[in-house]
Write a structure and sequence with these properties.
- The complex is a heterodimer of chains A (117) and B (106).
- Chain A is 0% helix and 56% strand.
- Chain A is built from no helices and eleven strands.
- In chain A, the strands form two sheets. In chain A, strands 2, 4, 5, 6, 9, 10 and 11 form a seven-stranded mixed beta sheet that branches.
- The termini of chain A are far apart.
- In chain B, strands 2-10-9-4-5-6 form a six-stranded mixed beta sheet, with no helix packed on it.
- In chain B, strand 7 and strand 8 form a beta hairpin.
- Chain B starts with a strand and ends with a strand.
- The chains are: A mainly beta (117), B mainly beta (106).
- At the A-B interface, strand 5, strand 9 and strand 10 of A face strand 5 of B.
């Protein structure tokens, strides 16, 4: 059974860069897309972007190219960086495995990232 | 971008009731529609994919239907554990937007 475990700094200062990593256990990075989604406090879900095994990336342009995603196939991990953060980027960030026809499953446990000085 | 609109935003129902949640896409998305259930403090959980296929292990009281722009999630006989927020998501075209959610109180 595939499990995702994510980690990263829970407190980031305004204008700095948020950094998160998600490790995949019990499965390969091949044949799936690896996604980042966030949820602001008390709000709905926002898709940030996805990366596949080959490094092909699709991302939500609403984040104005502040997003950098990478994948490390040797470690079975993928990562997210979000630059120039503001308080509006405060959210729970999730990683998730996905495919177009079968949706996102499983999800990581979520990381609350607070942007504050 | 394809906007996803759910209705209602919230509803209250009783154990044993039949409940339907609607999701409308701003343009056709074929059957690339996913339903998730999220309980407080937890990550969303996949319920239904490709509009109508139940994920293995999900109770059969959940069902999905629709194609094109209009979709529904139906819970045939509500149970207390179904109290949650439900989200639809389109996976037809990037950005893969979610609906705003429907909060179901039992």
């Amino acid at each position: 059974q595939v499990q995702l475990q994510q980690w990263g700094a829970g407190l980031v200062k305004p204008s700095e860069t948020l950094s998160l990593t998600c490790a995949v256990y019990g499965g390969s990075l091949r044949n799936y897309n690896w996604n980042w989604i966030r949820q602001s406090p008390g709000k709905g879900l926002e898709w940030i972007g996805e990366i596949n095994y080959s490094g092909y990336i699709q991302q939500n342009l609403s984040l104005k190219s502040r997003v950098t995603m990478s994948i490390d196939t040797s470690k079975n991990q993928f990562s997210l960086k979000l630059s120039s953060v503001t308080a509006a980027d405060t959210a729970i960030y999730y990683c998730a495995r996905g495919r177009q026809t079968v949706g996102y499953d499983p999800w990581g446990q979520g990381t609350l990232v607070t942007v504050s000085s | 971008d394809i906007q996803m609109t759910q209705s209602p935003s919230s509803l209250s129902a009783s154990v044993g009731d039949r409940v339907t949640i609607t999701c409308r896409a701003g343009q056709t998305i074929s059957s690339y529609l996913i339903w998730y259930q999220q309980k407080p403090g937890q990550a969303p959980q996949l319920l239904i994919y490709t509009a109508s296929i139940l994920k293995s292990g999900v109770p059969s009281r959940f069902s999905g239907s629709g194609s094109g722009t209009d979709f529904t999630l139906t819970i045939s006989s509500l149970q207390p554990e179904d109290s949650a927020t439900y989200y639809c998501q389109q996976t037809y075209r990037s950005p893969f937007n979610f609906g705003q959610g429907t909060r179901l109180e039992i």
